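Escalated from tier 1: NDP holo job.
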Amino acid sequence: MPEVKEAALANSQQLVARNPVRVGIVGYGTVGKATAEILTANAQEIARRIGVSVLVTRTCRRSPRPLEMGINGLPVTRNWQDVVFADDVDIVVEAVGGTDVALQVLRAALENGKAVVTANKALLAQHGEELFCLAKQNNLPIGIEASVAGGVPVIRAISEALAADRIQAVYGIVNGTSNYILTQMEQHGIEFAEALEQAQKAGYAEADPSLDIDGLDARDKIAILARIAFGLAVNIAEIPVTGIRQVTATDFHYAHRLNSTIRLVASAERTGDGVHLAVQPWLEPRDSMLAKVDGANNAIFIAGERVGTQMLYGRGAGGSATGTAVLSDVLQIAQQIARGGASASGLAGFHNGKRTPLLPRPHAVSWFLRLTVQDRPGILARTAEAIAHCGINIDSVIQEPHMPKDNLSFVITLEPICEKTAREAVQAINQFEFMKSPVLLLPMISSAEEHV
Ligand code: NDP
Ligand code: HSE
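Tier 2 regenerated the structure:
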């Protein structure tokens, strides 16, 4: 191990004062290819703006076509080792995805004295501490701007622009695919499966789209933001997550009756001795900022003690937006290399972050319950009784007339109550024999500030 470290330090010396700076890209799909194309198309403009030439020297993917040529007529090779161990690569961009090969690529790159840039939130959420530790040992930078919110520079906003403030909360829409699906269902009345297919075609979705629709991608992103904002270590397995699979066109109909819409919101907030983190679909007022975020766009609210609440908004997924974010790191590191040496990036929360208990949401909120039942007399009475039994006050009951009797959906809204009590009521209702599917339980708010 000491020899590896020495070799790495020796190699990192070779990064000193190089111009042009050479980039190797591992993974030539949506993000990797867009990164190479943008860098090449804007090469002259970039050199003029930052005073350093940056060029792609190697690319690889899992299954290149025979004699496949990539950018600048470079061959697209098959083995990531051809990129990571190449002498003509200073910065390795990992655009493979997943947590197996990607982890090997980043470990090998750092151990061989290369700076690294990744858009891989799953990898960072699971192995970020190890990777930042390895980077620190080898005094090499890791760029992770593209890992959260695609083209929106939220990592830099929190870790640099707002570094002087104490961040109280970060929340918003951080998964473009889910937001695209929800807004397509809402605006065009299309089914979930069709909207997902469109998001996949557009290059927004993960290779395994269940990561998007089950809220796991949003979980990984909010964990990264919480680490950076609060300087705390976060165990993703402890974060409560609800995705959007259960949301139907009927839910949008009832949401509209309540002058609201539905959005998947990830939130992180300091509370008492710990932090609260969650990912779940919310009922948002239609005139709120979050309700107006459509398509694959993202919006992140950052609430600081001194700076107040700021919102960042923009394209959260897709090759061009993400490639631009990848390149923001590449260019920053290239400038360091050209000036005489890249050094480790010290992102709070990834270095010796204190483990903190994850606590329940500290305040009560209103709730939207959609029940789908086999219709018969007495359903409302029994449901209301179960809710009253938990000490909860009903705010409204909404049921459209002439619904199909064998699949009737109606909505009950509850006055503000803590999540634990709302779930107790839902658990009791789910036992009733007339229920066709489990209750859809969504928190509701009347303004964005109520998320924290
Ligand atoms: P893609 O599936 O489009 O591309 C992945 C690329 O990695 C493919 O070219 C694939 O090869 C290649 N690959 C897979 N395994 C290997 C291997 N063993 N060796 C070499 N290459 C390999 O994914 P994306 O570009 O969409 O995503 C890449 C990363 O960026 C992920 O971590 C994702 O979470 C992240 N990201 C994606 C965003 C997006 O909007 N798409 C936005 C923000 C982050 P082949 O082409 O031959 O299959
Ligand atoms: N699949 C991710 C999304 C890509 O839809 O947001 C951007 O991280």
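The pocket of NDP (ligand 1) is lined by residues 26-32, 60-63, 80, 95-97, 101, 119-121, 146, 150, 203-204, 206-207, 317-318, 322 (CB under 6 Å).
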